[in-house]
Amino acid sequence: MNRPRVTRRNSIRSLIGGSILFPAIVSELMAAEESTSLSAEPLTPKPTHFPAKAKRIIMVFATGGVSHIDTFDTKSSGNGRDGSGKDKLMGSVFPSNANKQCGTVVSDLFPHLRDSMQDICLIRSMKSAHFDHTEAAVGMHTGSATFTRPSMGSWLSYGLGTVNQNLPSFIVIAPHLPYGGTQVYASDFLPAYHQGTRVIPGNEPIANLAAKTTQERIQQMELGLVDQLNRQYLAGRSDDSRLAARIKSYETAFHMQTAGPEAFDVQQEDDKTLGMYGLKRGDTKSFAWQCIVARRLAERGVRFIELVDSGSRPNWDSHGNMKEHVPLAKAADQPLAALIRDLKQRGMFEETLIVWATEFGRTPTKEGKFGRGHHGDCFSIWLAGGGVKGGIVHGETDDIGKSIVHGQVDVHDLHATILNQMGIDHTRLTYRHAGRDFRLTDVHGRVVKDILL
């Protein structure tokens, strides 16, 4: 009997149709010339350049441009700064108070975070890469506001790998995409398996994660066959990183069928923990859920976790009225403070670097009735854990929040500092592409040593 030639396409088609005879196909594949394997396991943990202070990063990105003047760098509303002055200057719309331990002043929008400022390094002298949302957001993530480049999470995945092969090395939890879209977690010219895996809060955070068959052995045989066919196809195309990435994604997806649901199941948490975050049992869509999942992923070895705080649209982009910040701050304040506390009580805080950022600040002059425009010349971000000093303020702006007085930190400096805490010399983390060595910080960047322990 003449058997049809075995090809990758018709074998998978037959497999899906359920008509394939596994022993015949597997025998023929094994008899064929052994295919070229991937050069090395791409996500195997890699050595650092020097001892790392942090093992993982949890980045929180408040998309839309949070007003520094109304949150972490409050300015008086007196002396003509109430919107009635010649230049329509407007001080902070909300009252503020000082942390009782370290004295850092924070708006009443964030009472829980204010109570945690002894553990937080506040940078009030951040300078944005751009004044437009998309460019500034992409710049904050990739270091380039004008050219497509790999995101910081992808660079860290490439440079360090992951300690848990059952989960992606870089996970982004985003109910809505931020300005810049998928580019904020793209791998660009790095191998595609380093791009972020997006998780959407809800009852099924990653679609189609559950196995389609309850017969585990059959599924293993099916995936084993697909893997053999893929690698056979890859043999003559060893430079095809997209195919290699797809093979790796199949492997990770298979393992995630067990590891993923368990990691995202916050119902395993006790009532005390849920209450600390302000999360109601059964809620799978709030920012509090994102924060608890971030901790659970950190526990399970995910290297880079990003939470996109988009709130309800139009997110933090408050052009018309700064009071639009109120519900967004309320949704984020308690969960973020709880994340710090939770990591501390589990002994993970010192080895976890939390980075809270936004793409730019907002103008000291009002826009509309009580809103503010985009302002990239200065704004505030904060870091906690991971070898960063707590209870300090780095940098200063002028008395209206328009310009940096001293201590400027740009995006490249921030990236260099984050990489440093992960044990990476930002000048040595490079990738050869288009005839030159690229790096996250391009030809710029300095480590902000004043904020480090």
Give your account of this protein's structure.
The chain has helices spanning 8-17, 22-31, 111-114, 133-142, 152-160, 216-234, 241-264, 271-277, 287-299, 325-345, 411-421, and strands at residues 56-62, 96-98, 105-107, 120-126, 170-173, 197-199, 304-309, 352-357, 361-367, 371-375, 379-384, 392-394, 396-397, 404-406, 431-433, 436-438. With 453 residues, the chain is of the alpha/beta class. It has one domain (43-209, 258-451): 3-Layer(aba) Sandwich (Alkaline Phosphatase, subunit A), CATH 3.40.720. Strands 6-5-7-1-8-11-4-12 form an 8-stranded mixed β-sheet, sandwiched between helices. Strand 13 (396-397) and strand 14 (404-406) form a beta hairpin. The longest helix has 24 residues, at 241-264. It is globular. The relative contact order is 0.20. The model is unreliable at 1-39 (pLDDT under 50).
